[in-house]
Amino acid sequence: MPLVSAKEILEKAKNEHYAVGAFNINNMEILQGIINACRKYSSPAIIGASEGAIRYAGFKYIVSMVKLAADESGLPIALHLDHGKNIDTIAQCIGGGFTSIMIDGSHLNFEENIKVTKQVVDLARPKGLSVEGELGRLSGIEDLVDVEERDATLTDPDSAVEFVERTGVDFLAVAIGTSHGAYKFKGDPKLDIKRLKEIKEKVNIPLVLHGASSVPEWVLKRATTYGAVLKGAKGVPEDAIKEAIDNGICKINIDTDLRLALLGAVREVLSENPEEFDPRKYLGAGRDAIEKVVSEKIALFGSAGKA
Ligand code: G3H
Ligand code: 13P
Ligand code: ZN
């Protein structure tokens, strides 16, 4: 099946009240681990490639691999630029086989963010690609000292309405207390679900949660047992993810959990077998660990059987 746009995948998810994972890839094994899980559970997927991933793997490799994965699997798969900021890369993705673009203007002021986001919508829409915008800056709630700072950082519901109307984005990334990486909370994990509810009531497009990795116990334990130093690593609890889905989140971005799963598997194989040097042994174990993580996400997000 040819690649589809993320809009197509997410409109169905929104109507049927589930979420779809947007999984980041950097190489073939990561992609295969994701696709193996999607095949097993008949789930759609959004494959995210960051500008860094494109630099690492090469533009043509990313596009060719993901096209092949969609063709072979017969699943609805979108190839999405994650956190696009560079206009040349965005233009290359629009003309070069991606089916969805994120323009990340979250570091800009409101008017500038609207301006660049609208510019990307105008470039991408005529070619049939979907566009994600982001409003608000990702930050753990406990790092925001008072209500004023929280309001200035997290997504404001009324500004979200204006942002969506003026840019025409197909889906919107919101900041409600998650952050990227493995160290999301120092104290008790907390998301601003009240804010999310208000955004959902006012904005009628699929909403996106970045920084949504959960740092599962088994993944962390495997990696640290075999020497990884990840002191204080903490992710978004699975019940908070469920609550976010119940309140309008349809696209859930996961990278850290895949990285940690790959790391733990590679470390285990190499420590248990110090004489091993066949990459198929350690990367194969990494691929299997990614399949397991993605299978758990599919169950949590409710996307099984939705392909
Ligand atoms: O949110 C960012 C993703 O985890 C991608 O990270 O820019 O290091 O590839 P990256
Ligand atoms: P995590 O770091 O929580 O996996 O978030 C990934 C992400 O938001 C990619 O855009
Ligand atoms: Zn992100």
UniProtKB/TrEMBL annotation:
<comment type="similarity">
    <text>Belongs to the class II fructose-bisphosphate aldolase family.</text>
</comment>
<feature type="binding site">
    <location>
        <position position="83"/>
    </location>
    <ligand>
        <name>Zn(2+) 1</name>
    </ligand>
</feature>
<comment type="pathway">
    <text>Carbohydrate degradation; glycolysis; D-glyceraldehyde 3-phosphate and glycerone phosphate from D-glucose: step 4/4.</text>
</comment>
<feature type="binding site">
    <location>
        <position position="210"/>
    </location>
    <ligand>
        <name>Zn(2+) 1</name>
    </ligand>
</feature>
<keyword id="KW-0862">Zinc</keyword>
<dbReference type="InterPro" id="IPR013785">
    <property type="entry name" value="Aldolase_TIM"/>
</dbReference>
<dbReference type="GO" id="GO:0006096">
    <property type="term" value="P:glycolytic process"/>
</dbReference>
<feature type="active site" description="Proton donor">
    <location>
        <position position="82"/>
    </location>
</feature>
<dbReference type="InterPro" id="IPR011289">
    <property type="entry name" value="Fruc_bis_ald_class-2"/>
</dbReference>
<dbReference type="GO" id="GO:0008270">
    <property type="term" value="F:zinc ion binding"/>
</dbReference>
<dbReference type="InterPro" id="IPR000771">
    <property type="entry name" value="FBA_II"/>
</dbReference>
<feature type="binding site">
    <location>
        <position position="180"/>
    </location>
    <ligand>
        <name>Zn(2+) 1</name>
    </ligand>
</feature>
<keyword id="KW-0324">Glycolysis</keyword>
<feature type="binding site">
    <location>
        <begin position="253"/>
        <end position="256"/>
    </location>
    <ligand>
        <name>dihydroxyacetone phosphate</name>
    </ligand>
</feature>
<feature type="binding site">
    <location>
        <position position="104"/>
    </location>
    <ligand>
        <name>Zn(2+) 2</name>
    </ligand>
</feature>
<feature type="binding site">
    <location>
        <position position="134"/>
    </location>
    <ligand>
        <name>Zn(2+) 2</name>
    </ligand>
</feature>
<dbReference type="GO" id="GO:0004332">
    <property type="term" value="F:fructose-bisphosphate aldolase activity"/>
</dbReference>
<feature type="binding site">
    <location>
        <position position="181"/>
    </location>
    <ligand>
        <name>dihydroxyacetone phosphate</name>
    </ligand>
</feature>
<feature type="binding site">
    <location>
        <begin position="211"/>
        <end position="213"/>
    </location>
    <ligand>
        <name>dihydroxyacetone phosphate</name>
    </ligand>
</feature>
<comment type="function">
    <text>Catalyzes the aldol condensation of dihydroxyacetone phosphate (DHAP or glycerone-phosphate) with glyceraldehyde 3-phosphate (G3P) to form fructose 1,6-bisphosphate (FBP) in gluconeogenesis and the reverse reaction in glycolysis.</text>
</comment>
<keyword id="KW-0479">Metal-binding</keyword>
<keyword id="KW-0456">Lyase</keyword>
<dbReference type="Pfam" id="PF01116">
    <property type="entry name" value="F_bP_aldolase"/>
</dbReference>
<dbReference type="InterPro" id="IPR050246">
    <property type="entry name" value="Class_II_FBP_aldolase"/>
</dbReference>
<protein>
    <recommendedName>
        <fullName>fructose-bisphosphate aldolase</fullName>
        <ecNumber>4.1.2.13</ecNumber>
    </recommendedName>
</protein>
<dbReference type="GO" id="GO:0030388">
    <property type="term" value="P:fructose 1,6-bisphosphate metabolic process"/>
</dbReference>
